[in-house]
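Much of what follows relies on a compact textual record of a protein's fold. The record below shows the convention in full:
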Amino acid sequence: MLTIGALSRKTGTKVQTIRYYEQINLLPEPERTAGGQRRYRNTDLDRLSFIRHGRQLGFSLEAIRELLTLADHPQQSCSQADSIARRQLEQVQQRLLRLKALEQELQRMISECTGGESGDCRVLEVLRDHSECLTDHNNIGE
């Protein structure tokens, strides 16, 4: 049995985050000692590691909840997990498109900077007037 501190250290998850996951029912309510301290099993460690890895891959808490439900019912088809992962991949690809456009815009702003006075600064000019941008980066990847 692990304390919340040990669980935190083993998974690299903050204690507050572990408590939050319990509140939103991603983690089951742990057993408690007579003194009220939480005690976690290896299954809780595995579940929290699953959640943490899912978060590192950018999955939303709701997607992780769906994946955990599938993991809790191993007889179900894998197609739903595949669908969730494909949806996540699509979101990542959209973010990458947006980041690439932002990178190009920033490179252009910097390259057009002449190093003169701030009143003539291209970086400040573009930030002041969005129409100076080459792309409408608000809508890229949507």
